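Rotation project, supervised by the postdoc (A.L.). Task for the rotation student: set up a whole-complex structure prediction and record inputs and outputs verbatim in this book. Inputs entered:
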Amino acid sequence: MKKLSMIFMFLMLATMSVFAKSVGIAMPETHVLRWIKDGESLVKEVEKRGYKGLLQYGNADQAQQNQQIQSFLTQGAKILIVGNVNDGVVSVVNEAARDKVVVVAYDRIIQGTTNYSAYITFNNYKVGTLQGQAIESALNLGAATTAAPKYITLFAGSPTDANANFFYQGAMDVLNPYIKKGVLKVIGPYPETYKDTANFQRIATENWSGTLAKTRMENLLNNDAAKITLDAVLAPNDTLGRAIIEACKADAKYKSKLPVVTGQDAEFDSALSIKNGEQYMTVFKDTAKLSEAAVILADAIANGKTPEIPGAILAEGDLKEIGYTGTGYVPAYLLDPIGVTKENIIIPVNAGFYTAEEAAKLK
Ligand code: BGC
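Outputs recorded:
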């Protein structure tokens, strides 16, 4: 009897996996750790809803990711959830659209076309605002004077990732007034906005590479910043933040006091660094919530229903630009990021963002 029901179960599962519709999940890279979590939780979310999840990482290489997406299409995927590397993804997105496949841009907007269903991300402008505000309060910029100004160096994310623009602008809209007043001085290039392309390129970090950020920081410390002590470094994410801290730690000047360094993603190593008083802050974007929201969205679109996504707002008004692809607008759904310092590091811990072993080290 037991054997028979086992055989029955096996046949059921085998039939389900043959008939289950597939969802292709294309994530950009693994050198920034968040994407590993994103990938795993996306697979979990699609499987919860009876789909089969096909997951691939693009190794920060768009040609490679395009091949992966093409192979999802060949395998009959009816939904694609794509965290793209850059706008080179457009050709395969157009192919998917021709096949009536539902494409949802995940975390990063797909630029250069509106030929896809929707975009889901966090409020990326607010991510930057939180970083700027953390610097503003840590340096007590409100009380700073031109006689004793504070010094900052600016870093931005990948120049091919539109998120990097919003992160930067959110932070600079907080910091620019202090720079204008002369109480905050920028060491190194100063793009007032991301639209100052020439200067933005100078502070941008190709492919969000920690190695490149570390080298740029070392050069700054040995040149432009050699004669002053930096009070803060605007770092757009944890990978770059930690690379910058490493460079500072090798400089005798910062042995007893590191500059205030920002971050994003609440990666475990950064959370620990915050707890230990090195990195100043991070921004917690709950990838479990984002992946759940992305799958609810894709599933609703695939079934012709109106998506109802808990905790997400549609990007409108001032936020509408987040859904601008360069050729038009796509519906963009935004989740809310949370700023995290030593004081509230327990928030991602309590949200279940870390493994039990990691969480124990953060308590
Ligand atoms: C994401 C960040 C991430 C960065 C590097 C951005 O598009 O929004 O969370 O740190 O890419 O992977």
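Student's summary: The chain has two domains: 2-116+286-336, 124-284.
Supervisor addendum: The CA atoms of residues 150 and 184 lie 5 Å apart.
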